[in-house]
Amino acid sequence: MPRMCPVVTGDTALARRSYQNRTKYAILLIVVSNVLRYNMVAALQISLDNLRDIPAFHALPDEQLMSLAAVMVRRQYAAGHIIFMEGDQAESLWFVASGRVKIIKQSLHGRVQGLCLMDRGKCFGSCPLFDMAKNPATAQALNDVTLFVLPEAALEHMKAHDPHLVKALLHIYSQRLEHLARVSEVLGAWTVPDRINDSLLTYADRDARDPVVELTQEKLASLSGTVREVVSRHLRLLEKAGIVRIEPRRIVILNIDALMPPCACEDQRKPA
Amino acid sequence: MPRMCPVVTGDTALARRSYQNRTKYAILLIVVSNVLRYNMVAALQISLDNLRDIPAFHALPDEQLMSLAAVMVRRQYAAGHIIFMEGDQAESLWFVASGRVKIIKQSLHGRVQGLCLMDRGKCFGSCPLFDMAKNPATAQALNDVTLFVLPEAALEHMKAHDPHLVKALLHIYSQRLEHLARVSEVLGAWTVPDRINDSLLTYADRDARDPVVELTQEKLASLSGTVREVVSRHLRLLEKAGIVRIEPRRIVILNIDALMPPCACEDQRKPA
DNA sequence: CGCATGACGTGATTTAAGTCACATCGTCAC
DNA sequence: GTGACGATGTGACTTAAATCACGTCATGCG
Predict the structure, then answer these.
(1) CA-based nearest distance B222→chain A, Å
(2) Which among A196, A205, B81, B245 could bridge B77 via Cys, Cβ 3.0 to 4.6 Å?
(3) CATH 2.60.120.10 region(s) of chain B?
(4) Is residue B204 left, alpha or beta, with left meaning phi > 0 and alpha meaning psi from -120 to 50?
(5) pLDDT > 80? residue A129
């Protein structure tokens, strides 16, 4: 049977040992991760400036920020740790202060489908906001990450007393909905190379003049719904065409226009 | 270049004439549909009983129902008509009174990826609820359909005055989010036959003892992210195995357990 | 330093699944 | 009845992309 694939993270060693037993290893890793997730490093106070860094809170008056700071908690996770799992009881709303968090779905066969990445300022963990009982997906720290946590109880209180803020959060989730719809389309209707290009664009850090994607090829593959080897080969093609430069654990985009999705360009097939 | 595919609806004739020109026909159809969508048949009053049929409104006191009935509008669309298009200005919240509506994403190449079906009682058109500017996907009448429309203005009013109802609606969208996350996983990590089975389960009408899927193979293919021929072949296999019975425009499920997703059954590969 | 480990490159092979090209049925309109 | 058209069945072919099996190259560490 086909389509078995990379395990949660860092599976090179496992892969080297055994391909047949991947499933078992996957299950194992999930269990291990479940333990790791309580392994946070610290829980400290949060300053107002910290909160102002988060777009949703940016325009809030100081008094509201202070009440938020009083109930929110700072947590840190090491790279690879599972923050919450799909199917878990939904507890709180999470904000990324630094680092990146990967939102994934894992089919029990061990295959991982990345849904999106959350970086600085983004919030995730939709569930309590919607009265959702269980998390719809898994969140994993991509690198070392600092999160601010808004516990469910506080959120409940906010829903009743601060509709304005709730509205801002809902807006964020509208984008989430849109993004997921897009992922579905891309996975269903695009070719794999197009999907890889799209992921490059989506996850590029565009601050610099040469945008950079700080991801291993493994993780890029998961976000594109494919496997490492294919990503590797496709990137090599792009590099030969002068569109990207491959560096360890990162890809530098040299010609961003060349990656633009096939929609834009009417027809990339031979015109004749 | 591969992966070109079924056009919006009823493309058999087109397909017969020309495979090469599909793209052009697809674009054409989209334009045509854009005209058709204003072609609703009637706009009539709505009774309280009509509203009570919708789960979200079920527990509402009469007075609230009456105020809803005052602002909501009934519309009817013929099979195949586009109700709204991806990218359109989001105008209102829609409820399905009868018939079924298909939510789709169309990549400009003419390929259609079905996201979900909405049947009686479901609501769609998330957007105004979230302050979303544009529709994230397209809605098309699958068969003749009657819809109740809650215009944006009324919704705006409701958001301020009836938090309880808004909460109920948000809950619906939490399920939407969950469903989309699932679609993404399924498209990215499952094999095509599994995806078809999953679609059969998802869209079966389970009221009868033998559940029935009232869909053409074409539409089933779109919902599964594949093409008609593959669906046809796979269904034939299922029929030979005694799991379904194929009838024109519908599939009768005889052994629903046999369709259950691969997750459930630990391992469907040979145990040795 | 050696060795484990994790990231990446690549050829060979396999196969799932899309594409093409017709054929077969109903049924509905005229 | 007889086209027309829409839904479906199917064989033959093609190919994108996954899998397998290694090899290379860094980096960290006892």
Answers:
(1) 9
(2) B81
(3) 12-186
(4) beta
(5) no
Distance between CA B220 and CA B213 in Å, rounded?
9
Q: Where in chain A is the domain with CATH 1.10.10.10?
A: 191-259
Q: Tell if the pTM clears 0.85, that is, is over it.
A: no
Query: How many angstroms separate the CA atoms of A201 and A205, rounded?
Result: 9
Mean pLDDT of A191-206: 92
Measured between CB atoms, which of A177, A180, A191 is closest to B184? Answer: A180
- Which is higher by pLDDT, A84 or B33? A84
- Per the model's pLDDT, the better-predicted residue between A248 and B29 turns out to be A248
pLDDT for A109 equals 66
pLDDT digits (tens, 9 = 90+) for B158-168: 777 777 777 77
- Confidence grade of residue A61 (pLDDT, cut at 50, 70, 90): confident
Q: Are A170 and A124 in contact (CB under 8 A)?
A: no
In degrees and rounded to multiples of 5, residue B146 shows phi and psi of -115, 130
What is the tens place of the pLDDT at every residue in A90-117?
A: 778 899 998 899 999 877 666 788 999 9
Supply the CATH classification number for the domain A12-186: 2.60.120.10
- Which residue among B127, B136, B185 sits closest to A107, beta carbon to beta carbon? B185
Measured distance CA(B105)–CA(B115) in Å, rounded:
7
Q: Cβ of B191 and A2 within 8 Å?
A: yes
In angstroms, rounded to a whole number, what is the distance separating the alpha carbons of residues A46 and A40?
Answer: 16
CB < 7 A to strand D: residues 164-223, chain B: 216-218
Judging contacts by C-beta atoms under 8 Å, the chain B residues touching residue A163 are 163
CA-nearest of B177, B109, B246 to A179 is B177
